[in-house]
Amino acid sequence: MSPCALFRSRLPAPLFLFVTVLLSLFAVPAAVGQAGVKLDYEFFKNEVQPIFLAKRNNNVRCIQCHTRSSSFRLQPLEEGQFFWTEEQSRQNFEYASAFVRPGEPPLNSRFLTHPLAASAGGDPFHGGGKHFANQSDPEWRIMADWVAGATKRREPARTVVRIVQTNAAGDNSHIIDPATNRVVGVIENIEIPHGVTGAPDGSQIYISNESLHTLDVVDSRTLRIKRRIHLSGRPNNIAVSKDGGKVYVGIMEAPGAVDVIDVVNMQRVKTVPTVGAIHNVYVTPDGRYAVAGSIQRSTINVIDTRTDEMAWTKEMDSGIRPMIFDTHADGSTKNIYVQLSEFHGFAVVDFNTHEEIARIEHPAIEGEEAHRDGLQGAPAHGLAVSPDGKTLWSTSKVYSHAYIHSLPDLKEIGRVHVGQHPEWITFTPDGKTVYIGAAGDNATYAVDAKTMTVVAKIDVGQTPKRIGTVLMQQDQ
Question: In the chain, where does the domain assigned CATH 2.130.10.10 lie?
């Protein structure tokens, strides 16, 4: 029996709880097992605890039962909170440690065997059900690493490119493998997911949650929500800083703001006031600016990412919809390409002079029926510049096509039909394939960028709109 378990067995539950709370106030040293291995508190708090909150198909969350348990007790979340306080986390750490034999084989610890399927070496019965079918389950592996004394996540076996399609009228987001154009995973339990982006190292995926007004941090290996971070209002689109340390969240509520999230410490650190409620926010390719657009006030708001202060604003003659950028030879931002409310095309704004220098209207397509219903003020609502900077793609909900223009001369060089109400666009990093969410088809279209032809129609969820290319870490 581990020292913590022996200690627990000799005290009544109320007294044990009192002692653990008291010890937590003095930064209790990590539990030490017979093998001399310490249990790391920070790893437990940031990596293990989120597993207790995760929703798995056909299973109740761990926290639902274990807040009532007389043995392994989890502290109930405070009202309106999505994660435990520091004091509560230390209490959870002490209770969990009582079921662990640090450094010993994994199946010596009841903490690991109780939720594991019996066929995989787990206990015969767990009142909360069997959450893990085998020892390869990425969440079970996180817990096993903690028991073994880990202080940080193990290095991933590989990092892969994935396309994430959020479903605006659903509660999930689909993950597509661009090598096969098949759905290889689903992120569940985010109702009305809006914007999506990923950590540069592939460790996490970020999705703005319109229902709960949170930024949801998803572990890329488990596809479970790792943390929900409160925002200042209802979020729309998001963007990650070039170094991966911050996420910028557009707040679609008056008077308007961009929330700055420190994703290392998992907290909102600043709210930057803007001119109007923010629909979309982006980080420029050089990482120097976050650029946010307001539909209601028709403004482009440019934030200096070094200071997170407003650098300049530009008022247009109509509401700001999707934007994208190209660059000068030195990597600095050259132009902003911006779609506007009630305009079937896009405008071009010189980033340095802040002046509009061109406006391109998409022509009608002969033989194609014009769709005017359900445009939500945005006849064109998706932009992307190819990774090589040579083409600009723009979607038309009116004609169900993507229009392709060459850069820098802005000559139309092609069109491709991409389903009903095509929305956002993303490229694979090599520029070979373009992915477009078609909200009216509940599908994502994969397009060969060179031939400008559809190569796959991939069924996803309800009303797919925002889409992004991310890196994802995998253990195997």
Answer: 158-474
Is the model's pLDDT at 30 over the cut of 70?
Answer: no
**Domain covering 158-474: architecture:** 7 Propeller (2.130)
Using an 8 Å Cβ cutoff, are 282 and 242 in contact? no
The two beta strands, 333-340 and 345-350, are antiparallel
Q: Give the model's pLDDT for residue 476.
A: 73
Q: Can you say how many angstroms the Cα of residue 283 is from the centroid of all Cα atoms in its chain?
A: 15
Cβ 442 vs Cβ 453: under 8 Å = no
DSSP 8-state class, residue 298? -
pLDDT one-digit tens code per residue, 430-445 = 999 999 999 999 999 9
Tokens of 116: 């594991």
For 414, how many CA atoms within 13 A lie in the half-sphere containing its CB? 16
| Residue 397 CB contacts under 8 Å (≥ 6 apart), including other chains | 371, 375, 378, 379, 380, 381, 421, 422, 423
The mean predicted confidence, pLDDT, of the chain is: 93
Q: What is the mean pLDDT of residues 38-67?
A: 94
Cβ atoms of 218 and 187 closer than 8 Å: yes
Task: Please give the pLDDT value at position 35.
Answer: 61
pLDDT on residue 158: 95
Q: What are phi and psi of 449, to 5 degrees?
A: -65, -30
pLDDT confidence of residue 34: 57
| 84, 92 contact by CB (below 8 A) | yes
Instruction: Report residue 182 as tokens.
Output: 């098949």
Position 373 scores a pLDDT of 83
Task: Residue 351: name the closest of 337, 340, 341 by CA.
Answer: 337
- Strand locations in 274-406, DSSP E? 278-283, 289-294, 299-304, 309-315, 320-327, 333-340, 345-350, 356-361, 383-385, 391-396, 401-406
Q: What is the DSSP letter of 418?
A: -
Averaged pLDDT for residues 17-36? 48
Instruction: Give the integer Cα–Cα distance in Å for 416 and 433.
Output: 13
**pTM for the structure as a whole:** 0.91
Give the pLDDT mean for 35-61: 93
Which of 344-347's residues contact partners 24+ apart within 8 Å by CB, and which partners? 344/379, 344/380, 344/396, 344/398, 345/380, 345/394, 346/380, 346/383, 346/392, 346/394, 347/316
